[in-house]
Amino acid sequence: MIYVSGLTKTFGSLTAVDNLNLAIDKGEVFGFLGPNGAGKTTTIRMLACLIAPSKGTATVAGFDIYSNPQNVRQSVGILTENPSLYERLSAYENLDFFAQAYGVADPQERQSRIRELLEFFNLWDRRNDKAGTFSKGMKQKLAIVRATVHKPPVLFLDEPTAGLDPKSAKEIRDLMAQLSRHENRTILLCTHHLEDAEKLCQRVLIMNKGHCIFIGAPDKLRDQINPNPTIQIGLRELTPKITSAVENNKHTQTITTNQLSAELLVGVRDAQLATPEIVRTIVEAEGQILSVNVVRPSLEDAYLKLIKEQTTP
Fold it and tell me: Which class in CATH covers the domain with range 2-223?
């Protein structure tokens, strides 16, 4: 659905995006991550045909950004960090205006589509209320509706949960997941909220200073940053005998003890193979096990470590 080859954008001596290559499948929720100034917004603006690349090319929904920019614009819906709604107009009037601007000329088609989306987003009962009276979460919902009112195959969502309370943020995440499944939309999600990316995205791309430094599934990033899983074992009592036995287990790579919480953190190469062996070792050392968990770094932990490695000389 989105194909990018060698996409580059320079502003004078500054290279904002440098030789980006990317392919995103139909219906995929794809995370676009990176610190401020990484080049994420510039990339989205090029893909949406709002600015021209310095070199390289891209196709969006099958249309070339150079030869078919109008078709590209009609094929995408965009949510910026600021919802940019007309606050003196009602929710329905906002959507009717933008649907016409996007080329949905038939009044009956507009009415049917607007009702479908407002009901889908649980906003139909507020359709006649002015957008200015909506909460921030409701405005975000309405802005997402606006972005998809013309049935674009591709959505560019920039920080859709920024500034929202946890309940509203979860609602927006759930709605994005439903859009991907219900309408088979391809979603490019640009966010600083790693929780959003972890819960929604099949793959993520991490940019830093205009360069792509990682692309792949979140699990691939975790494995790249910390290839050895950790087994977390809670005990009724942590004794020297238990610690010594686990240290000498052939599967143990590293071991960290916490006497206060009677907890062991055991680094291993293969958690599936090692866990039953280490549990057996503890039982044979007269340990009473309360809990066993395989701990992996969060996407946020892996992301922060990768960015730190890229910025540390």
Answer: alpha beta
